[in-house]
Write a structure and sequence with these properties.
By secondary structure, the protein is α+β, with helices and mostly antiparallel strands. It folds into 3 domains: 273 residues, no CATH class; 51 residues; 49 residues, no CATH class. The chain is built from 13 helices and 12 strands. Strands 1-6-7-8 form a 4-stranded antiparallel sheet. It has a 3-stranded antiparallel sheet with strand order 3-2-12. Strands 5-4-9 form a 3-stranded antiparallel sheet. The chain starts with a helix and ends in a 23-residue tail after the last helix. The N terminus and C terminus are likely disordered. It comes from Xanthobacter oligotrophicus. This is Phage portal protein.
Length: 394
């Protein structure tokens, strides 16, 4: 055991076995599970589009801080330090939308998102520092808690932090501690889509035309075959040389292979790959501009479906992680990511819901105005009681 290992052991750190498959997910990216890194996975346009759709949408929605009073009622706390960070930025270099977008995207691609919680000298929340997952090493203490060894990426500074000092958003885990990327869980699907894209790129690079056969009378020596193949490829291979004139002599004949991209179902395979990747991220295809099987009806419902099944689970995970790490244990404060704004794209549904809320007494007109982002109506312009519709008394 080395010096560092002995010191870590005395501090209560436990070294995990290298062959533990769940701990292997600590490697940067998505490791050998999918055969490509998280950054390489984003070369697949659908992975990039799905990641951006979820991360950007969650960064866009209002983030509100509430306090529960003794009766269990929620009161918005605009002066809370977290609310100031949401409005003014989590650090001098990063706004709240930028931070949340990085945080969620890392979790979607690698299974884990990490941010250091910065506090002032009096313990008050002062900011967050996003840490790329590849710069973090996780150890398990003898108590069962996790500790995070954060590097600056240059090998100069290392900082050990315990669970309460970091935000750790994770995708579903195998061991209850470290998240595992859904890209790694569906490695064959991801690799299949990547292979189809590589085939399409190769097809286009070779002139978008099928290869063929050169028939030569008699028998050729190996070096003659090699010379013919290389000279033919140099003269006619590649998309930039498509349509060039082919000249053969010595009785040679060219026979094109009768295989088209439609026969190989290349286009259909790539379209299906888009749907497969959307399925991994719970993103409706219209959200990532895949309109092949789209209709007006399902397009109108895609946003609502996306908010309900694609965003709401992640919003709840983020809220729970803030409750665990940022706010005091059992304290009265809570974060809410307000997804109701996704109804703003459907004014008919939104205003019908407002009318029902007013008619049933759930909301009053001023509360509806507040939801819409408007100031309360001036007192002199408010309708008389029982005449909220705004019509003049008879």
């Amino acid at each position: 055991m080395g010096l560092i290992d002995r010191m870590a052991s005395r501090l209560g750190y436990e070294k995990r076995a290298a062959e533990d498959p769940s701990w292997a997910a600590l490697a940067p990216g998505i490791g050998a599970y999918a055969g490509l890194s998280a950054r390489a996975a984003e070369n697949l346009s659908t992975v990039l589009a799905c990641t951006n759709a979820i991360a950007t949408a969650l960064a866009y929605v209002p983030a509100l801080v509430y306090r529960r009073d003794a009766d269990g009622n929620r009161v918005e706390m605009p002066a809370h330090p977290l609310n100031r960070l949401v409005r003014g930025g989590v650090s001098p270099q990063m706004t709240w939308p930028d931070f949340l977008e990085h945080f969620v995207a890392s979790t979607l691609l690698t299974g884990n998102g990490i941010a250091v919680i910065e506090r002032a000298g009096n313990g008050q929340l002062a900011g967050f520092r996003y840490i790329p997952w590849g710069m973090v090493t996780v150890s398990e203490l003898s108590s069962g808690r996790l500790a995070y060894d954060v590097s600056d990426g240059r090998g100069n500074t290392r900082r050990y932090l315990e669970g309460g000092e970091v935000l750790h958003l994770r995708d579903r885990t195998d061991d209850g501690k470290i998240g595992r990327s859904r890209l790694s869980r569906a490695a064959e699907t991801v690799n299949g889509v990547q292979t189809a894209n590589q085939h399409a790129a190769s097809f286009l690079a070779n002139g978008a035309s099928p290869s063929g056969v050169i028939e030569v009378p008699g028998t050729m020596k190996p070096e003659q075959r090699t010379a013919l193949r290389e000279s033919f490829q140099a003269r006619h291979g590649g998309a930039s040389k498509a349509g060039s004139t082919l000249i053969l002599d010595g009785g040679m004949k060219w026979t094109a292979a009768q295989v088209s991209p439609e026969d190989a179902e290349l286009l259909e395979t790539r379209k299906f790959g888009v749907i497969e990747l959307c399925r991994l991220f719970q993103v409706p295809p219209p959200i990532v501009q895949a309109y092949e099987n789209n209709t007006f009806t399902n397009a109108a419902q895609a946003g609502l479906w996306f908010a309900t099944f694609g965003l709401a689970p992640w919003a709840r995970k983020i809220e729970a992680e803030f409750a665990r790490s940022v706010f005091p244990s059992g304290g009265p404060y809570e974060l809410e990511l307000d997804l109701s704004g996704f109804l703003r794209g459907d004014p008919e549904t939104r205003w019908a819901a407002h009318k029902i809320a007013i008619d049933t007494g759930v909301l009053d007109p001023d509360e509806v105005r507040q939801i819409e982002g408007w100031n309360p109506r001036p007192a002199e312009k408010r309708p008389a009681p029982g005449n909220e519709g705004g019509q003049a008394d008879g």
